[in-house]
Amino acid sequence: MIDYLKKSFVTYANQILKLLFIAGSNIIIARYLGPSGKGILTLLMSFVMIVIMIGMVGVDEANVYFISSKRSSHRKVFGNAVYQTAFMSAICILLFLLVKTWLLSSLLKGITVQYFYIILVLIPFAFMNQHIRTILLGQRAIYKFNIFVILQALLLFLMQIIFIPIYGLFGGVISIIIGTVVLTVLGMVFMFGYGRPGTAIDLKLLKKSYSFGVRSQLGIVFSYLNQRLDIFIVNYFLNPYHVGLYAMAVAVGELPWHLPAAAATVLFPWIADKKKEDAAKFTSYVLRNTLFSTTILVLLLALLGKFVIVTLFGTAFEGSVLLMYVLLPGVLALGVTRILGAYFQGSGRPELGTLMVAFSFVETIVLDIILIPRMGALGAAIASSVAYITSALVGLFIFTKLWHVSIFDVLVPKWHEIVKIRGFFKILKRSKRDE
Predict the structure, then answer these.
(1) Are 317 and 195 in contact (CB under 8 A)?
(2) What is the helix (H) or strand (E) element at residue 310, kind and residue range?
(3) 256 within a domain of the structure (yes/no)
(4) How far apart are CA 44 and CA 42, in angstroms?
(5) Distance between CA atoms of 179 and 125, rounded to whole angstroms?
(6) Span 260-288, mean pLDDT?
(7) Which residue from 214, 209, 216, 257 is spatially nearest to 355, judged by alpha carbons?
(8) How many of the other CB atoms lie within 10 Å of CB of 94?
(9) Cα 365 to chain centroid, rounded
(10) Distance, CA of 98 to CA of 120 (rounded, Å)
């Protein structure tokens, strides 16, 4: 318990540090490139991330499960990761070259062909980057994982400080490339610290990884698309300027979400080798206390959000304020979904995570198509909030019914647990002295 809480706290503290670098990046982008530049960079990065989510076919999630549950070795998982990266990168790059004209006239409208070619270079590094993250999680190397994540945000921020004032939007694109490439190289150094990769593909492990991954993959893709697909639909119906306004609202509105995200990051490998009853009970503890803390953060952001957006990013982004307020209820629900998704994956039932977000994925598309042409980016914010809440309700229904957990135990914090928060920090301090 203490080890979990300690690593969750460290992960969240590092998330805060990462968010400071991301905020710095957004300030640089906002001040030099404005909403349109912010929109173009968001489209490019979201495009790459969706490619990775789909192209992984869930193998990255299988990395965590098989290593943390000791069902496979680092050498085998690492070796398969290298081969899978090379194979899927080649397929994706070829496919996108074939459909280039359609992409640039629809989902990536407003992106020049030069930027499109440049961003394709990022795909193999992004694939390997994701493998590295999940292998570190599987090893429960939470501190190295956090270092890796923070350095990526820091390096991107430093590159943007250097290149964007000089080269503008092109400097923003180059910063993304340099940051990802350098961090992937560093991640490979971390990987070799646990052993060399296998020299041949382990087909038996690969089959098991795809079997696990396919069951979780749709859920992962649906969940990510629920958060990012509306960006492309906004671009399709409007333009990168409105994408920039909406993306800034999302970036600020999702700040409280990083607390449950940190808790879920540690929860996944933590419960992979636990008994189902113990895992469900512990997940309930994590969920109710995380939800309580996230609610406080959401209320604070509701009070300070307008000041944060206008002061840090300028009056050009004042249109993001209302969008952020509309997103906040959904962000709170998104934290519930994130933790339950980690539980379903860690307990070996990733298909339940898929079921949790499948309906809300369809709901997002339908509502976006109906609302965005009529209400602009505000329609996207409404659609997202409704979809996030739907996903959380479905997940709670599955969790409470299958594992016979009371909804009150899941959602309502216990007073003695709140009181013990101070004691938790004392334990952290004492355990740190004893190390």
Answers:
(1) no
(2) helix 276-313
(3) yes
(4) 5
(5) 10
(6) 76
(7) 216
(8) 10
(9) 20
(10) 13
Measure CA 355 to chain center.
19
**Residue (of 24, 65, 283) closest to 160 by Cα position:** 24
**DSSP label of 349:** -
Mean pLDDT, the chain, integer: 85
CB atoms within 10 A of CB 208: 16
The pLDDT-based confidence of 383 (bands split at 50, 70, 90) is: very high
**What is the C-alpha to C-alpha distance for residues 45 and 289, in angstroms, rounded to an integer?**
33
Token pair of 300, please?
A: 């604070």
238 near 117, Cβ under 8 Å? Answer: no
Cα diameter, the chain: 61
Domain count, the chain: 1
Region at 406 (left for phi over 0; alpha for psi -120 to 50; beta for the rest): beta
Nearest in space to 129 (alpha carbons), one of 92, 171, 177: 177
Residues 6+ apart with CB under 8 A from 85: 124, 127, 128, 131
Residue 135, H or E segment: helix 122-138
Q: Which residue has the tokens 């339950």?
A: 340
Q: Token pair of 293, please?
A: 């803390």
Residue 322, phi then psi, degrees to nearest 5: -60, -40
- Range of 193's domain? 2-430
CA–CA distance, 187 with 204 (Å, rounded to integer): 26
CA 132 – CA 391 distance, rounded (Å): 29
Any domain includes 287:
yes
Nearest to 125 by CA among 76, 65, 188: 188
> 36-40, 196-200, 347-351, 390-394: which has the minimum mean pLDDT?
347-351
Q: What is the dihedral of CA 370, 376, 377, 383, to 10 degrees?
A: -20
**Is 288 domain-assigned?**
yes
pLDDT digits (tens, 9 = 90+) for 10-33: 666 677 788 788 889 999 999 999
In this prediction, residue 429 carries a pLDDT of 45
| Residue written as token pair 């957990």 | 405
Cα angle vertex 398, ends 207, 339, to 5°?
70
> Residue with structure tokens 């820091």?
154
For residue 158 the two structure tokens come to 């430093």
User: Per-residue pLDDT tens for 208-240?
Assistant: 888 877 766 666 777 777 778 889 999 999 999
* Whole-number Å distance between alpha carbons of 193 and 240: 43
- Confirm whether 35 is domain-assigned: yes
